[in-house]
Amino acid sequence: MTEASQIKLGAYCDKINEALKKMTADKPYLRENISEAMEYSLLVGGKRLRPVLMLEFCRMCGGDIEKITDIACSIELIHTFSLIHDDLPCMDDDDFRRGKPSCHRQFDEATALLAGDALNTLAFEVISEAAMNEVISAQTAVMLISVLSKAVGVNGMIGGQIIDLASEGKQISIDQLDMLQRYKTGALIEAACVMGAVLAGKYEMIPAAAEYADSLGRAFQIVDDILDVTGTFEELGKPIGSDSEQEKSTYVTALGIEAAQREADRLTEQALLTLKQFKDHEFLADLTESLLHRRS
Questions:
Q1: What is the pLDDT of residue 218?
Q2: In angstroms, how far is CA 15 from the centroid of its own chain?
Q3: Is the pLDDT at 207 greater than 80, yes or no?
Q4: Phi, psi of 97, deg, nearest 5
Q5: Which of 18, 73, 88, 218 is surrounded by the fewest CB atoms within 10 Å?
Q6: Number of domains composing the chain
Q7: CA-CA distance, 250 to 256, in Å (whole number)?
Q8: Range of the domain at 158
Q9: Are 226 and 261 in contact (CB under 8 A)?
């Protein structure tokens, strides 16, 4: 990334991290443990890609982003909840996340389960509170909640996760793999981009935002699959080769590393072409390309 893009990304991440800290700062009596587990998982690290996308799409669509950092964080709350649950013994049974013990290892399985549930509900509380405090209109809040809830549910992230679990140890087609990842990974990325356009009131740009997100989401997952084979624990902060151990269907198992990389290249180019429909898109174009070449 260019120096200017790195500075802008850092500024976005600083604002997001500060907002996330405030959301879990309260440790109510007899519920300290659950708040600490939520805070631990939220602040252990992460790219903050989804809230950055929401803020940037809002800005590119002409919206005012100064007062919507909390709303952008709603999608990071959802993402973190999904990671906590994904690591549980009944799911992927991973002991590390972002170089630190997974939530259920740092605390315990029941606390981790409830921390994920609490983060899930907090996301919608944040959006509704923004409407109650007149930061956004009630109509905008309803639209945001509609987009986000659909992205989380059976026709979104959770639907992708159940297809993923059912596909373990099986060979599935590329079309099925695309569906799996479009739901499991892509749905939240699409929600972030679409919610940015909604916050700006630029509803006519929603199809382009969704088209960009579809390409980016699939490219992002392909690179993840490649890194699970070629990366290191130090780079990724989690065990390498876990997909293979669990006999998961990935783009690497379906296409091989070289063909998978070519597909990620193609999808990234497609995403960059879609971005040209938006004014002042240089930062997001730079970020998009950097995600293709990332090592973590």
A1: 95
A2: 17
A3: yes
A4: -145, 120
A5: 18
A6: 1
A7: 9
A8: 3-292
A9: yes
